[in-house]
Amino acid sequence: SITDNFSAYGLYDQSFLPVAGADIDGNAFKPIRGNNIEFGLKKDWFGGRWNTTVAAYKITKKNVLTVLNPNQTTNDQVQLGEVQSKGIELDITGEITKGLNIVLNYAYTDAKVSKDNRPALVGNPVPNSAKHITNGWLSYRFTKQGSSLKGFGLSGGYQMMLNRNAGSTTVPLKLPDYYRFDGGVSYEKGKITVAAVVNNLFNKRMLTQGSYTKLANETATSVSYYTYIYEVPRNGRLTVTYRFK
């Protein structure tokens, strides 16, 4: 901590992801290895009623699969690829008035191919990444003693993803901007809380991701293709919570 209400942090972590398959010589592919470097600042405001966090990070993934030969007519692959994601994140939480709370966050991400056996792909965006992601949640709990509404709560929120990339590293594809709104109601009495949340409140038909599959040898019945996944239509969730203490 720098002061009682201001602190800084740093972290470094590593990860790995097993990869199925083998190279042209029959050697099993190595796991994809990654590392994450992050530095951030945290600050409390107004006696702890508001909290902010800002962070910068860089994520590198190595041993990413890439084609063995840029001019090949087969799908042979080699682990020479590398992708990097760099960005900043901002989180804000706070109590606007008694019972009214807000959570806001924003992330800027620049995710690109940093190494590949095909030099032309270096600098291309990573599929299914978004430059800008922001979401927020506003909730209100009736707390006034003697009120018939005491214990009831209302909440609502949004999620936005802008400048989205899909397809593949060889065939980049832009997806439409994504906007989703959710809402909920709850009631709390004693140790019991009942809450209902409706997701995709306006039942929007939205794409969540897309990909492009390039076949080495196309035929009349087997061609390269795009794949899209849609957001789940309007749906709800009901939860009942009991606290034993």
Describe this structure in words.
The protein is mostly beta strands. The protein folds into two domains: 1-90, no CATH class; 127-245, no CATH class. The protein has strands at residues 6-17, 32-45, 50-67, 77-97, 100-115, 129-141, 152-167, 172-175, 178-189, 192-199, 207-213, 225-230, 235-242. The strands form two sheets. Strands 1, 2, 3, 4, 5, 6, 7, 8, 9, 10 and 13 form an eleven-stranded antiparallel beta sheet that branches. A two-stranded antiparallel ribbon has the order 11-12. The two termini are 32 Å apart.
* Structural class assignment: mainly beta
Name the helix and strand elements from N-terminus to C-terminus, one letter apiece. Answer: EEEEEEEEEEEEE
Principal-axes shape call = globular
Strand content: over 45%
Low-confidence stretches: none
Number of spatially distinct domains = 2
Q: Please provide the count of β strands.
A: 13
What's the helix count? 0
- What's the helical proportion of residues? under 10%
**Main sheet characteristics:** 11 strands, antiparallel
Give the N-terminus to C-terminus distance in angstroms. 32 Å
Return Rg in Å.
24 Å
Q: Summarize model confidence as the mean pLDDT.
A: 86
Architecture blueprint of SSEs:
Elements: E1 6-17, E2 32-45, E3 50-67, E4 77-97, E5 100-115, E6 129-141, E7 152-167, E8 172-175, E9 178-189, E10 192-199, E11 207-213, E12 225-230, E13 235-242
Antiparallel strand pairs: 1-2, 2-3, 3-4, 4-5, 5-6, 6-7, 7-8, 7-9, 9-10, 10-13, 11-12
